Structures are given as structure tokens and as C-alpha cells.
Amino acid sequence: MRSLRTEELILNMGPQHPSTHGVLRLLVTLDGENIVEVQPDIGYLHSSVEKMMEHRNYTQNIALADRGMDYLAALVNEMAILRAAETLADVPVPERARYIRTIFMELQRLASHLLWLGTYGIDLGAFTAFLWCMRERELIMDLFEATTGGRLHHVYFRLGGVNEDLPPGWTDRCREFCHYFLNRLDEYHRLLTGNPIWQARTQGVGVLTREQAVAFGACGPVARASGLQWDVRKSHPYEVYDRVDFQVPVYTEGDCYARYLVRMDEMRESTRIILQCLDQMPEGEVRAARVPLNLKVPPGEVYTRVESPRGDLGIHLVSTGGETPWRVKIRAPSFVNLHALTEMMKGWKVADIIAILGSIDIVLADVDR
Amino acid sequence: MVRVPADGSREAPIEQLVEVLHRLPGGQILVTSIENVLNWARARSIWPLTFGLACCAMEMMQAMGTRFDLDRFGVIPRATPRQADLIIVAGRCTIKMAPVVRRLWEQMPEPKYVISMGSCATCGGPFYYDNYSILKGIDTVIPVDVYVPGCPPRPEALIEGVLKLQEKIQRERRLTRRLQEAGA
Fold first, then answer.
1. Is B72 exposed, middle or buried (0-12, 13-18, 19+ CB in 10 A)?
2. Each residue of A198-230: pLDDT tens digit?
3. What is the signed CA dihedral for B80, B81, B84, B85, rounded to 10 degrees?
4. CB of A194 within 8 Å of any CB in chain B?
5. What are the strands, taking DSSP E only, across chain B?
6. Residues of chain A positioned with their CB less than 8 A from the CB of B100
7. Which residues pair with A31 in a beta bridge?
8. Coil, strand or helix: which one is A215?
9. 8 Å CB contact of A153 and B55
């Protein structure tokens, strides 16, 4: 009997697709049900942020970093820009401001991971997870709103501190939320971790080995799920991360399930960091005096990095001494992890595309900038 | 009474209804009442397309999530434009994305509505100046019914936008206009 001749099929997925988390287009080459190759087509959300930053002073760039970069981690973006500018200009930051920044960045990580868990739940058919995560996310939004006035875009950090001090009673509310949230986290574990459907969709799916993760430069939870002990908060501590006790969760399986577990553990660690910061936070100024809004940064070049919820977010800042940067290059974690996606998907079935894509938690504004 | 054209093509049932009613004594009044009922039904089951562009999509998700629950207003997201009545343009639209948005809008069946959510979709927002890639307002590509301001708008603002759209649908006179066009 003659063997059956088969042809490869090219499936176009996106840019409008409920599970691509934005406007990503995937060109999937299929052999029957099996994925032969995946080619991401990006640029559907290119906002020319790097160019715009050259025309705005550093304070204005904070607002732009909120919106133009990874919008799920607005405060971490603000920190990334500020860390570069403050390192170059050697701006002093009061102690209390450093603690406030750390608390807010960790709250932002919780909010981002919660949204990821919710949408990943929808991707895999678990709608309850979405409703539960949104419920807790709203509480974080309330905490944000009470201090920064914004829910998604805050423009709260400033050169040499933060805009204003925490409102009265905020620390108690935050502490209360942390204890409440730890209970809820157990609830998520009960809902999903042991769930046979959840395990069947994620365990062993989309494996990225440690070598591949290193070769692709993968970062964040994707790298840590592949056994790579790499967290900027530990390796290049900024703000007060060197003064708080927290673990960096690492799993060696490299599959979607490991990436899920890394994020779940990170949420617990973030809550621990917030509680420690609340205990250690001193009284005092929250903004260094005599730092002008249109600060002139001395000429020079600097590369700084922060740990965003998606991984290692780097800023290469070049200044020629003016009020605006001469060049800003953003090293976006989602962009790098998206590249690793092409390797993760090879050999899996069509139905696994969504499971693997969701597990790396890309934000298209971060990919395209 | 119901006219079947000579070429065998059938008119849509709603058009046949108009045909029948306007020949009845007082048909005009009947059509108006039926129109009100149709608009009422239409306004209270607006199905938007699951379509997010950027940050505003997060607030759209929050609006459909636990605390705000847009389902209360009959707003149930659909994943395909063929089943959608409404497209919420949530976020900045690039020049590369514009033809895609246009095609999605064209694929939606009539009657269809557009909500422009956020400053970026309305006018380019913070990406208006010094920018080479963002469209200065989605209304250059598709017609917009309701603009929701904000960067990003709160979920309450989006709900207000949906309510405004419901009011707009309730005022529509599609059947009456068709009747007038038919010369009744």
C-alpha cells in the first residue's frame, strides 16, 4: 500500500484572537495536528516609545513608561526608568520612599500575576479562576487608588522619591489585605494545583530545557521554571530588596505547570516582602528636596535592570547632559520570552498552542513598545 | 399580501413584516410600537467582540469581571465578529493594526456599534505627538457611536458608555425609516 501523502498547512492565528493576550499574530505551520514551526509576527502594538522618550524630560517619561511599556506592571516600568536616571544623576532617595516603592512594586507583581492566572484559567477553560482573581485584583486596585489615584497608570514615583506619602490608615489596610490574600492563595491552590484537568493541560507541555532557556536569554518565571536561578532582585538588588528575606522559587521541569507553580510561589513571596516592608518602614520624608522636575542628567551611559513580573527589564540610557535622554533602549522581558516560545511549541498539538502561549505571560505592549 | 419577487428571491422576514403592517389601517402606529420592542431587546443584549488592543483592555476585563460585572447589562463577550453587535476599541491602534480593525468591523453583521474606549482610541491620547506609528483616533477607520474618555477609563466609565449606547439604540428608528423609504 502506498503511503499517504500529507501536506503542511499554515494556520494564521491572530492578531484578533481571544487567547493571544493582545495583538500577537502567530503563523503556525502544521503537519496534521502537530506543530512544525511557529513564527510570531509582532509590531501590531508598536508605539514608538523609545523615540518618544527622546523628546520628553525624565518626569514626563515616567508617565510614558506607564502607558507605552508593559501596562500590567506600570510601577515597575517607572522604577526601571528612574533607576537608570537616578543612577546616572546620583539622586538621593529617602529611606521611606525606598520602602514605599518596594511595597508598590510587589503589589504590582501580585496584580499582574493575578491577571495572568485569571486569563490563563480562561485559556484552559477554568472560568472560576478568572472571577476569583479579578475579585482579589480589585482589592489591590483599591489600595493603589487610595495612594496614587490611578488604577492602572499611576505616575506615582518621582525622581528622588515618590509623589506623596501614604494616606492615613493605608498600612493597616495593606496588612489586612496581605493576610486575606494568603488565605485566598491557598484557595487557588485547592482549585487548580491538584485539578486533574489543569494538570493534564499543563504538565509536561511546552518544555523548555535549562540550556535552551540560557541560549534564548529567557528571564523571569519562564527561566526560573527551567531551573535557572536568576532574579534581579537577588542578583542586583535595588531599593530595599537586600534588606528583606524572600525566596526565589525555582523549578526544574520547564513545563507550563512549573511556570504556573513559580508564579504561585512568587505571589506568596511578594506578600511576605510587603509585610516585611510594612514592619520595617521608617517615618520621614518621601521625596528628596531640591530635585528639580526637569532634572538635567549629566552626560554618560548607564544600563540598569529591574525585575518586572515578566522578568529582567533593562534600560540602556544615554544622556548628553540635557533635560531629555539622548537615547533609551528598553530590553523587554516579554520580547525575549516570546522568542523562546518558538522552541517550546515545536512538536506539540494545535490545542497546546494556547496553553504554552498563555504560560509565558507575554504583554504585547512590552514586546512591541 | 406578501409580495414574492418574480426572480424567486425572498425578502428578509422583517421587511415582509413592514410590508404587511403598513397596509393595515393604523399600521404606522403598530410599526412604531414594534420598533420600540425591537430596540428594547437589541439594547439589552449587546454582545461585544472579545477584542483588546492595549491597556484599556485590562479595564474592560475588570468591567466584565467580578466587581463590576457587565453581564448585568446583557453584555456578553463573543470571540468572533460574526456573533458580535459591538466592538469596543480598547487601547491604541497602530497603523499596522488599522486594516485589521476595519476588517473585523466589516465582518460584523448589522446593526453594529462601536465604542471608542480611552484617549488613545479617541484621538491618539498620549501618543499624539512625536509618534510615527499610532493612529490619531480610531474614527479615521471606523464610525464611532460612543466615546469613553479616560486613560484608561474606569470600569464605571465603560459601563456608563454602554448605558449611553443603550439609550442611543432605544432612540433608533430603523423600521420607520425603511417605511418612509418605501413611500408609505
1. exposed
2. 888 888 888 888 998 899 989 889 999 998 888
3. 170
4. no
5. 86-90, 113-117, 146-148
6. 15-16, 23, 44
7. A34
8. helix
9. yes
List the single residue in B with minimal CA-CA distance to A15: B100
The set of cell numbers assigned to A91 is 539622586
Does the CB of A182 have a partner CB in chain B at under 8 Å? Answer: no
Structural domain boundaries of chain A? Answer: 45-368
Contact list in B for residue A71 (CB cut-off 8 A) is 54-55, 58
Using the Cβ of B95 and the Cβ atoms of chain A, whether some distance falls under 8 Å is answered with: no
A175-210: burial string, b at 16+ Cβ within 10 Å, e else = eebbeebeebbeebeeebeebeebeebbeebbbbee
Cβ contact B132–A51 (<8 Å): yes
C-alpha A79/C-alpha A101 separation (Å) is 8
Measured between beta carbons, which residues in chain B are less than 8 angstroms from residue A130?
A: 65
Task: Specify the pLDDT at position B1.
Answer: 43
| DSSP code at position B48 | B
The set of cell numbers assigned to A147 is: 495612594
ipTM (interface predicted TM): 0.86
| Sheet-wide strand order for A25-31 | A9-13, A25-31, A34-41
Task: List, for residues B19-69, the tens digit of each pLDDT value.
Answer: 676 666 666 666 677 788 888 888 888 999 888 888 888 888 889 888 888
Choose the closest CB to B65 out of A55, A56, A134. A134
Q: With a cut of 70, say whether residue A284 has pLDDT above it.
A: yes
What are the chain A neighbours of B96 within 8 Å (beta carbons)? 43-44, 46
The answer, yes or no, to whether residue A180 has pLDDT greater than 90, is yes
Element (H, E) at A27: strand A25-31
Give residue B54's identity as a one-letter amino acid code.
A
- As a whole-number percent, the residues of chain A with pLDDT over 90 amount to 32
Q: Is B53 on the interface with A (CB under 8 A)?
A: yes
Q: Which of B54, B61, B154 sits opposite A365 (nearest CB)?
A: B54
Hey, which residues does A315 pair with through a beta bridge?
A304, A330
Residue A361 CB partners (closer than 8 Å, separation 6+): A21, A116, A120, A221, A222, A259, A263, A309, A310, A334, A337
Residue for cell digits 514586546? A367
Q: What is the rounded distance in angstroms from the CA atom of residue A357 to the CA atom of residue A350?
A: 11
| Higher per-residue pLDDT: A284 or B21 | A284
Nearest CA distance, B165 vs chain A (angstrom): 24
Q: Do B134 and A71 touch (CB under 8 A)?
A: no
Amino acid (one-letter) located at A339 = H
Residues of B in contact with A364 (CB under 8 A): 54
CATH topology for A45-368 is Cytochrome-c3 Hydrogenase; chain B (1.10.645)
Q: How far is B79 from chain A (nearest CA, A)?
A: 6
Locus of grid cell 477584542: B51
